[in-house]
Structure formats: C-alpha cells, structure tokens
Amino acid sequence: METKKTAVIRHIGKRGRGKGQFMSPCGVAVTLTGDIAVVDTENHRIQIFNENGSFKSKFGSKGCKVDQFNYPLDIAVTTQNRLVVTDSVNACVKVFTIDGQLVQMCGGDFDFPYGVAVSYDGYFIVTDIFKHSVIILDPEGSPHHSFGGFGSGVKQFDHPYFVAVDQSKQIIVTDSGNSSIKLFHFDGKLLRMFSQNDFKLINETFLNLQGLCLDGDGNTIVICNSNIYILIKNGRLWEILTTEDGVFSPKSLSYSPSGYLVVTQYDTGKRHELTVFRYRQEDFRSLNSAQFYAISI
Prior knowledge:
By secondary structure, the protein is mainly β.
C-alpha cells in the first residue's frame, strides 16, 4: 500500500481577541452539519466556523455564571448536534445548542474536567486531570460510574487529557504522564495499552500525547510529540502528519466525514490557529486485518 500524505487545505485564524482570532485554542469538534466548533480557551468562549473556515458565531465570556466559562478546554458533539464543553476552573460540563443556548449543566463530581466525549446513546465520558480518572455521566448528567486513580499501573492514570468513545462504547484515553494510550470497555476494564515501545521513537523517553479522535472507520488518530499518528484497529501505528506537512504545535483534532482533519495549534509565539488537513481514510482500510479491541490484558 502506498500511503498518501495529508496536506494543508487552509489555515483559520490568528492570535488575538477579535472574532475569528484565538488565544490558546484547545478542543475542536466538527458538528453534524459540517461546521467547526473550537474551544478558544484563554478567550473563554466557543467559536463556530463553516466548513470553508469563515467565521459564523461565538458565545461565552469569562466568569462563573451558567452561560460563562473559566478556561474551557474540550468540546464534543451529541447526536442532537449539541455542544458539550468542559469548563475546567468552574469544575463542570455544560451542554449548549449550536447557537450558544445553555440546555444542561453537570457538576459536583469534578475537580478539573479536561477531555470530553459523548457515546451514541448520550453518555458523557470526561477525564479529570486532578482526580486522574475517567468519570461517566448518564444522559441526564448524573454520575454513572468512574474508573482510574493516580499511578503508573495499567489501570491507573497520570493526568489523562483527552478521550474518545467508539460505536461499541469502548473508551480511548491519552494517559499523558504515563506516555500511553489506553483502551477500555465502557465499564472500565482495560483492553489494551500502547506505550513508548509501540511508537518506536528513537532517543525519545517521553510521549507528549494530546488530542485524539476517531475516523469514519473507527481508527484512532492521535497527537504525539508534535506529530499526528493513526492507530489502526489491528494495532499498527502509522505517522501521517509531521512538521513537513504543516504541523507545528498541535493540541487537539477532529475528523470530518467530508475528508479532512481540523487541528488546533498554538506555540509560544504568535501562531494560534486552526489548520485543516486533507485526510483519506481509504488509504488505511487495507491494513485492518484484525480487531485489537477484542484483546484484554
């Protein structure tokens, strides 16, 4: 198989506080209608762009009111096209309509919620980097169960950042401090773990794992050490985006069925943007000969 490298389609935004500008953009999600919703963390708001990168709307401001944010971090889309946001310092998860109307707020069990994903049947899966755990809420926002705790064991976490959930309700977590990706049953039973040796990075002792998402075939796409990898469902890892492709400091990413990846990026200088890359999921279908989700350890 000859893998075609993805390429930059467009750059969206720059550093600033105006509409269409960002201060440390973090979580990003593609809505059911193809719009791009991005968490503009240090501007304490959500911004919406159309598929072509044109600004559409924004909502939120800094504060502790129900319709405000205090360092929001991640975002996910429900099957009703609602936006689920982790409001980290306010220690809650908030659900909004696409035009910014609050419809649900879940709190009380978080110390510092970070990553969020939503299952097909409406459960909220949230990482808490102070509790070093994954917390699951039912569709009404009530606690359902949780798993994890601080440590370096295979079923423990050290600052779990981002999370995804597939159509089988299997949960995938970037365990940042332990330099690993961990896959769990919905109930918290570990299925498999990918760590330093699996990435085969020469002369690197720490994996800086950040955002992850699933493509339309259920493969995991993950940010690692400022590159972007695909984790094929049979367990093989492939590097698909590097600095040569326009990756400079990626934070989070989202897949669109229209054939692209949108990636939030920012560095210590003036570059704060969304970068849209072309993505051909058919390039990886022939590699899937087995389902690694069936493996338990």
